[in-house]
Amino acid sequence: MKLRLILLLSWLCIVAFAQDVGNQQAVLSNARQAYYSLQDQGLASFRCDLTPNWDAVLADERKSNPAGADTALKTLNQLRFTVSVLANKTTITHNELSGENAKMQEALSQIYSGMQQMTEGFFDTWRLFAWDSPFPAVNSDYRLEDAGASYRLIYKEGAANVVTVMGKDFVIRDLAVSTPQFDSALRPAFARTHKGAFLLNKYGAVYQTDKPEETTKLAVAMDYQVVEGFYLPQNLSLSGSYGTSPFAIQLVFSGCQVGKK
């Protein structure tokens, strides 16, 4: 696959001058401490109301069919979503609208499914950076290389091969994951908490399987709210494409409640 070829070429370019880091446990320990961790802060779970910006979703439809967009908006504004997030699970619940015809019920079912998949996908990535740590355990099996201006961290996570490139300031620049089923390449960016810890606030990503029509490209940006001392998402913007189909949506998290350890 194209992504694997790119990773291989990158490896060949770097391996000539990359050297193993002698004090790799100390470096990795410092890197882990540089990132905000909800787990370290004592969070066990959180629950928020989740509100999509349906006006933005219907913007193109409104240009060609304003009346149809208004009708759809009246229905969509009746939907209520709640997201519950644990360390290893994301659950979306919603209300049920009554009195809709079969066609509308089918459309609503697709919306429910899409919201579940999209939200689960976001939190699967977000957890990696904000819940625990984007790095393996200090005493686990990995290889840390010094590539001059950056570090290159190589390890396995289950069946996945992971390659992380970070600067000497521990800011992750690229994260590549390869499994027999898919390849992904992610480029994150970070804000800082009031204590200076790195906190994910945007990323671009490409996910590929052996089927080109399933290629997913994402551009994600978020900002945060502080709830009982915890940094939680407040506004989320997702855009990109699945195969040749583009998508874009904005979500607001409100009324958040946290569970502590």
How would you explain this protein's 3D organization?
With 261 residues, this protein is of the alpha+beta class. 28% of the residues lie in helices and 43% in strands. It contains six helices and 13 strands. It has helices at 2-15, 24-33, 54-57, 59-64, 66-76, 102-130, and strands spanning 19-20, 43-52, 81-85, 90-94, 143-146, 150-157, 160-167, 172-178, 183-192, 198-208, 216-227, 230-242, 245-260. A hairpin with a 5-residue loop joins strand 9 and strand 10 (198-208). The radius of gyration is 21 Å and the shape is globular. Mean pLDDT is 89; it is low at 5-17.
Class of secondary structure makeup: alpha+beta
Helix content: 25-40%
Nearest-integer average pLDDT? 89
Radius of gyration: 21 Å
Determine the number of helices (DSSP H or I, runs of at least 4 residues).
6
Taking pLDDT < 50 over at least 5 consecutive residues as the criterion, the unreliable ranges are: 5-17
N to C succession of SSEs? HEHEHHHEEHEEEEEEEEE
Spatial strand arrangement across the major sheet: 1-5-6-7-8-9-10-11-12-13-2-3-4
**Which oligomeric form is depicted?**
single chain
Task: Tell me what portion of residues adopts beta-strand conformation.
Answer: 35-45%
Q: What's the main sheet like?
A: 13 strands, antiparallel
Quick one: how many beta strands?
13
How far apart lie the N and C ends? 43 Å
